[in-house]
Amino acid sequence: MPELPEVETTRRGLAPHLVGRRVDKLIVRQPRLRWPIAPELIALLPGQRVDDIERRAKYLLVHTQAGSALLHLGMSGSLRVLPETTPVGSHDHIDWRLDSGQVLRYTDPRRFGSQLWQNAGEIHPLLAGLGPEPLGDDFDGDYLWHLSRERKTAVKLLLMDQKIVVGVGNIYAAEALFAAGIHPSRAAGQVSRARYAVLAVAVKQILAYAIGRGGTTLRDFISPDGQPGYFEQELFVYGRSGQPCRKCATPVKVITLGQRSTFFCPRCQH
DNA sequence: ACTTTAGCCTGTCGGC
DNA sequence: TGCCGACAGGCTAAAG
């Protein structure tokens, strides 16, 4: 489900309720997620106070003195801070009981998310190989252009490769390529330096805009305060197969790339 | 070194 | 109404 803007929206919503609070107890109803919940997290987190919440790629890092919990929402996960007495639903897999009398509740129907642990001063293997943040200064057109030389993979797959750049998922990849006028299946090595410059700017603009709007609502994204996102009605191509392109009225097409639906305008994108 | 594929899960939706 | 397949926002590991 969530891409970078949704994770960032979640971070901002959780921070006021979590930072400075002590985690008193974990209640694990379902340990089997994308990876089993880390035993170290179960052992070390109770009693710890939350110093800070950071986002890296689509991971939330909940920092404590003992180390950091790494939370990933997968495709269908959400995190909310609720009163302890809130009834438990069938997909409410893990609660962190806080000293505020509230719980941080992790809900995830498809269980593609994860709760992992990183000791203080160490870097979890899953974070070690990640590419730069798309909103950072080290991500720009020249970076993409240099990495893409000789590569035959579709430019959309390059953009979604977390080793190249993190946080760009299926929706925002489609939207950024539309904004840049680049066909999603074009070979990455065949995109010019100038067009990568446009693409990198488009990625930054779209992500920043989506964060400002509270993320996308496609099925079930809910921010920690219960508000849905409002980006959905502003999508140009994603999910609009057969509908007129918002720029030129040509019907939007859908193809499959890397087992994912890929929407584009056959007239605006080359 | 790069590219492609399978798979982790459950819920929902459209077609028959 | 019910059954069945296709599909869903992510990502890794393994195979090619």
TrEMBL record:
Q: Where is the FPG-type domain?
A: 236-270
Q: Supply the EC number(s).
A: 3.2.2.23, 4.2.99.18
Q: What does this protein do?
A: Involved in base excision repair of DNA damaged by oxidation or by mutagenic agents. Acts as DNA glycosylase that recognizes and removes damaged bases. Has a preference for oxidized purines, such as 7,8-dihydro-8-oxoguanine (8-oxoG). Has AP (apurinic/apyrimidinic) lyase activity and introduces nicks in the DNA strand. Cleaves the DNA backbone by beta-delta elimination to generate a single-strand break at the site of the removed base with both 3'- and 5'-phosphates.
Q: Which PROSITE patterns match?
A: FPG_CAT, ZF_FPG_1, ZF_FPG_2
Keyword DNA repair attached:
yes
The protein's matches in CDD domains, at most eight in alphabetical order, are given as:
EcFpg-like_N (cd08966)
Organism of origin: Tahibacter aquaticus
This protein's name: Formamidopyrimidine-DNA glycosylase
The entry assigns this protein to a family as follows:
Belongs to the FPG family.
Subunit description: Monomer.
Q: Which SUPFAM superfamilies match?
A: Glucocorticoid receptor-like (DNA-binding domain), N-terminal domain of MutM-like DNA repair proteins, S13-like H2TH domain
Q: Which domain of life is it from?
A: Bacteria
Show the Pfam families listed in the entry.
Fapy_DNA_glyco, H2TH, zf-FPG_IleRS
What this protein needs as a cofactor is:
Zn(2+)
